[in-house]
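Lab manual, section 2.4: Encoding a predicted structure.

Procedure: take the sequence of the chain (270 residues), apply the prediction step described in section 2.3, and record the output as structure tokens. A sample record is shown.
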Amino acid sequence: MKTSCLLFFAALLLTGAVRAQDDADAPATTALKRYIRARMDARQERADKARSGRPAPPPYAGLPDTVSPTLPEDEGFVRDRRFPGEQVVADVSGLDAAGLTLPDVIEDEEWARLPDGARIRRDRSRGYEIWHYPPGTRLIHRIFLKSDHRLIELRMLQKQDDDASGDGPWAFGVYRPDRGLYALTLYQERGGRPESVSLPLPGRFGRFTWTRLPLSSCRDCHASMGDGWYQYADRDRAGPCGFVPLNPALLTRWAAHYQRRHGYYPFIGP
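Recorded output:
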């Protein structure tokens, strides 16, 4: 219990700082980050041994090959103005030379949907709150080019069925435009090179490059750098970054929107 609480409060201290800083951190913060990562490596090692050589499922297991760009609106997802703590992680080049940052060129939306009638169970048995998401929970992150509101990428997380541990993994998907739909990007997972697209800079000549993230890096980042990493037993079960207990506005603002749309409050527990 003491170790779990220490890790949880360490997460609170490092919210935002872990993502925004690197070697320039103060010595105490750097030491704390190393401690957390060492604990996570040890946790992963125990999980790997428990699997007895069974390979982890691929990060995209269970996701559809293609989706509609209007999937959130079509299937009853509920949008919040922004999940607090969530940010866009992207591999881009060509912005620095133009004196621009990522928020200058893109805008994004986040949506969530639970299976019909299902609720997220709030659990404080460890001395701090974690959430148990029902299998079938889906999160959508749509990323648009700011200049013309063109949808350049759709990202999806989906909670899979519970396994023998009682806690199933999350699937991660990155979708690219493909003949009116959005297709799952699996270049690196199939041994190819990552896909890069050239996009126009806003209001001027010139372009920047957007490279789609490999799905394995999505899972690794969510396991170690997001606001919800302390909830997950190991990297293979890493899930949401911002749609987590550290963002209490989800219990009020997003939940109120969800209740109006679907007729019930989407959380249960203390």
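Check your result against the sample. The chain has one domain: 2-268.
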